Amino acid sequence: MDVTQDSRSGDPNVGRAQIEWVRRHSPVLDGFVRRRISDGSLEGKRIAVVVHLEAKTAFLATVLADAGAEVIVAGSNPRTTRGDVVEALRERGLTVVAEPDGDYDSWERELLIAADHAPEYIIDDGAELTMRMSQYRPELFAGLRGVSEETTTGTARLHRMHEAGRLPFPALTANDARCKHLFDNKFGTGQTTVQAMLRLTNRQIAGAGFCVVGYGYVGRGIAQYAKAMGARTSVIEVDPVRALEAFMDGHAVGAARDVLPDATFVVTGTGGMRAIGERDLPFLRHDVVLANAGHHDLEVDVDALAAAASAISSPREQIDTYRIGDRDLHVLSGGALVNIAGGSGHPVEIMDLTFAVQGIGAHHLVTAGLEPGVHIIPAELDDAIAAAKLASLGVELDPMRAEQEDDAADWLSEGTAP
Ligand SMILES: NC(=O)c1ccc[n+]([C@@H]2O[C@H](COP(=O)([O-])OP(=O)(O)OC[C@H]3O[C@@H](n4cnc5c(N)ncnc54)[C@H](O)[C@@H]3O)[C@@H](O)[C@H]2O)c1
Q: At what angle do helices 12-24 and 83-91 cross, to 10 degrees?
């Protein structure tokens, strides 16, 4: 049985083997988190898990189900759902409202079906289910007790909902946990985005111009991996402080017109829309590879490319080539997150941390009695997850000793001069 492929065929045996592979490499989720959430508090709670539906997400769903939750699983992007995993989860008795090879219309329908299962809690990605429940299922939205959000984009959306007075329950921004963004966004996306771009294209990175648009945690991870593989890296940023960081990290920095003409690879990771848009098209060189690692499938404006193209062809799996004038511009995975739609997603070890935050976060939402609004997972839970990961790696830390502490506090009390 080939469990290395992300087959969409729908063989539950393959899906089961893939989930077991994840379990073997997820010591925090399979140990620390399991123990912590198996106190009965999740018993019978309806939790929707709406994250890219592949084996690592599936394992999180099974851990929650094992803790007694009634789990409803849906995908967070129609291009990233794996059929084998869907079938394996169904075989285990979980409710899955996602089909592989769907399109945006079928995905919209699936999310509304997930909403109709009346979840009390959501582990969401991009706030995709939360927003739709607010908009299309207000009566069920009123029954929500909490949301734990995976991404930078979803976190921004939840803050906007809160500011608009439209968030009547607590939302935890898992992305703000240090055990999430310091590792997942940076190392996970960095490794797997470069990996997917090279696998899909079979092109050479050493010596190639490689442009990263957006220098947040995602962008800096991608730029770091590309540079380590010998690329000549450049960065496009709109925030001057982050642009300066990119410069000091050793990347060329500049406006699109200055850096794009030298790039063989261009990848977006901004969380916004049209980071590479119509105005940038004149600066792209012939044969450039365009990919996206951010949440929106329109970070590379494929609609603008299609409007400008005289022809569109598909020379290789997951590559669309737009003929514009005398140039060919290649878009990977239709502009969806290339590391997930065109690869296997984050390394298991990284998702062990991210989903530990989500599992502990769901438990915290159920047990902590949080006020409505946007919250960050408490620092001690973040620390406990990191400590569990270190323990799984056989690493022990020295505790801080009293004599190592700064004695500045002594200066706050009055005393006699020596
Ligand atoms: N592919 C994955 O597996 C994965 C993993 C984690 C996060 N994400 C997604 O990646 C995106 C970025 O995440 P992050 O944590 O780096 O966010 P971030 O907010 O830390 O960084 C985004 C950066 O992009 C810059 N930016 C915004 N619009 C821009 C534009 N038009 N041109 C140039 N720069 C622009 C911002 O100034 C900021 O520095 C989000 O959508 C997030 O949800 C994807």
A: 90
Using an 8 Å Cβ cutoff, are 211 and 193 in contact? no
- Residues 275, 268: contact at Cβ < 8 Å? yes
Domain ranges of the chain: 12-180+345-392, 187-341
Question: What number is the average pLDDT over the span 172-183?
Answer: 95
Ligand 1 centroid vs 159 CA: distance in angstroms?
16
Q: Which of 124, 152, 155, 176 to mutate to test the pocket of ligand 1 (most atoms within 8 A of CB)?
A: 152
Residue nearest to ligand 1 atom 40, measured at CA = 271
Orientation angle between helical segments 152-163 and 128-136, nearest 10 degrees: 30
**Which residue's alpha carbon is at the smallest distance from atom 41 of ligand 1?**
271
Match 């090879």 to its residue by tokens: 101
The Å distance, Cα 270 to ligand 1 centre, comes to 3
403 C-alpha vs ligand 1 centroid, how far in Å?
A: 42
CATH number assigned to the domain with residue range 187-341, chosen from the 4 options 1.10.10.1100, 3.40.50.720, 3.30.70.270, 3.40.30.10:
3.40.50.720
* Ligand 1 midpoint to CA 287 (Å): 25
Q: What CATH number is given for 12-180+345-392 in this structure?
A: 3.40.50.1480
CB atoms within 10 A of CB 22: 24
DSSP symbols for 319-362: EEEEEETTEEEEEEGGGSBHHHHSS--S-HHHHHHHHHHHHHHH
Q: Is the pLDDT of residue 4 over 70?
A: no
Contacts of 67 (CB under 8 A, 6+ apart): 34, 37, 38, 42, 43
Best mutation site among 128, 158, 184, 185 for ligand 1, i.e. most ligand atoms within 8 A of its Cβ? 185
CA of 221 to the centre of ligand 1 (A): 11
238: CB partners within 8 A, 6+ apart: none
Query: E strands of 75-145, at which residues?
Result: 95-96, 121-124
Domain 12-180+345-392 shares a fold with domain 187-341: yes
365-414: pLDDT as tens digits: 999 999 999 999 999 999 999 999 999 999 999 999 999 988 766 667 77
